[in-house]
Amino acid sequence: MSAASKSSSLRSAFSYCVHQVRNYDYHHYLCLLELPPQMRRAAFALRAFNIETAKAMDVASDPKIGLMRLIWWQEAIDKMYAYKLIEQPIAQALSYVISEHKISKSWLKRSVEARIKDAQREASDLPETIEELEQYAEDTQSTILYMTLQAGGIRSTAADHAASHIGKAIGLLLLLRSLPFHTSRGRQFAYIPSKVAAKHGLLIEQGARAEICMDSREGICNAVFDMASVADAHLRKARELAESVPVEAIPVLLPAIPAQVLLDSLSQIKL
Predict the structure, then answer these.
(1) How many CB atoms lie within 10 A of CB 124?
(2) 74-93 pLDDT per residue, tens
């Protein structure tokens, strides 16, 4: 492939990433527009990767197909770091970002491996605690912010801590927003931890199986409130760190704004 062809292919790959983020994650698309140009390209590739892995199970006609797609991405990451060409636009853009910015492989692997683990659990296999969901949010959302900071050459413990809290808040709130969708797909309320469900009288145990009782609207609302309160605490902690975060990191942490909007929308429906 000639240099001109490679350049054209790469432009098309990044254009595809921007298109995916705009179509599937518009609030974050707006946040990424505030980044400096070079960091923006990396951020769009990373966010497109996150979208691709996040929706793998949701768009698959069969859960096995979705899981295969996630495993494909797990293997693709190894190929990217081995400098092997992958004919997929997001992978192409991501390969360039990895090469240019020396993105940590461990963060990409953590993200996709967390989604694989989640895809492999049974619908009745409820998480036990909110802390388990916080870890899932850290692995799938905070890592994207860490890598964006890395792409911008920003090394700051305060920024990393803020990114951790913001990612956890985003992850928890996205899980709450997805509850109706997963219920419609037969997964019941698969992201309400069993301890939270038991606290509000929602847990039904049948032998080795456990599921959420959906008959109590008040109980569901109280459980969601507990989870949303944890997300709120993370956003508050991130705000407390704002003064110690370097100014160049602030645009990377703008996803805290749509997270707060989502949290406020939950409050407005009087959970």
Answers:
(1) 14
(2) 999 999 999 999 999 999 99
